Amino acid sequence: MKIRPMGPNLFLAEFSSEKDMMHVMKGGPWMLSKNAILLKIFDPKIEPADVVFDQLYIWARIMRLGFNLMNSERGGPLAGRLGVVEKLDVDENGRAWGSYLRARVVFNPTEPVMRADSGDTWRATFVYGEPRREKRHEFWDLLRRLRDQREGPWICCGDFNEVLTHDEYYGSNDRSDAQMQLFRQCLEDYGLVDLGFTGPKFTWTNKQEAETNVRVRLDRAVVNGAFSNRFDDCRVENIVTTTSDHLEVLINLSSFEIPTERPPVQSGFRFEAAWLRTPDYKELMEQSWAKGASPSVSLQGTWNNLHSVAVSLRQWSRDTFSSVRKQIKKMERQLLYLRTGPFSTASLTETREIERKLCELFEREEIIARQCSRVDWLKEGDRNMSFFHSRASARRRANTIKALLREDGTKCDQLPAIKGMVE
Fold first, then answer.
1. What does pTM read for this prediction?
2. What is the structure's pLDDT at 162?
3. Best label site of 44, 69, 182, 389, fewest CB within 10 Å?
C-alpha cells in the first residue's frame, strides 16, 4: 500500500488489491494518536479537497440495559438510534452477555448524534478539546458552529482540555487565567451551563509522584437551557477507572434506574485455571487429597478421594476466589475514597497498590471466562466477555452426557441409571 499526502490531514492510499481495500474500509474504526481516521473510496473526478467524509464506523457500548433487552430483537433498535447497525455482538441465539450490549454502527460524523423520543428531538455532541493552547480558540469557534446548526435541546460532553476555575486544577504550575476566561466566555456566549458532577472532582491525572503530580477536571458535560428543561433530572457521575489516566463520565438522563436481571449461574464443581495464580493452591491440593485418602484402590475409592478434594476446593474457592467480582467492587470503593480524599504521598502509594491488585483481579476474571470457553485469543481487540460466554455455552452443550451404551448394546438415557453405571 502506498500513501501520498494530498493536503492538511488529507491522504490518498493506493492498494495492491481490492480485497485489501475492502478490509480497510470495513474493518474500522481506525485510530491514529486517539484521532479517528475517516475513509472514503476516492472518485478521480473529484478534487481531493472536495471529498466529503460522511461515514464513521464505531463500536458502541449500550450500558445498563435490563436483561430482557440484551438481545438483537429488542436491543438492536436501541443501537439503531446511533446510526445504521452493521453488527451486534451477540451469540448464536441473539443474546448478549456481560454488563453492556456491543454494537458496530456507522453514522455521519459531521452531524451530532441525535435521538428521537416521543416526537421530540435532542442532540449530543462528544468532544475532544484542542490540546494546544495557541489553537484552543479554534475549538471554541467549532462549538459555535455546532450550536448554529440547529435549535433544540443540546448536550455537549467529553474532554474539553480546559478548566473553568483554579480549584479544578491541582499542580505545581499555575493555569492560565486568560484561557479559563475564554472557556467561561464560550459557555456564556453559547448558552451552555455545566451540569456539575458527583464522585471525584479531578477527571485526569498524570499519575506521577507527589511533587510532580497533576490532577485536572478536564471532562464534563454542558447543556443549553432547552436540554435542562427537557431532562430536569439529568445527573453526571465521575467513575473511577484503574488503567486509564481519565475517569469515566456517566450521564444519567433520569434518576430512574432500570432493574437488571441476572441469568442463572450454573452450580457444581469445576476446576478453574485462575486457581493456579494463587500461592497456596498446591499445598491445599496435597492436604485435601491426604485428608480424604482411601485405602481402597477401587473406582469407588478414587471417587471418594476426588469428592473430598472437590469439597475442599469448592469451599476454598468460595472463600478466596469465587468472590472476584465482590473484591473488585470493594477495591473500587476504596479507590474512589482515595481519589476523593486529601492528596498525599501515602494516598498516592496506596492508590497505586490498589490499582495493581485490581489489575490482578481483572486478570483472574478474564482467565475464568477464557477457561469456560477454552479460547486463548481475544476478539475485536478487547476483552470481549460476551464472546467467551457464548463459547462456554456451546461447550456445555457439547460436554453434556445424554446417554451411555450398556455392555449388551442397549442405550441408557435415564439420569439415575447413568449414575449407577458410572459408580
1. 0.47
2. 92
3. 44
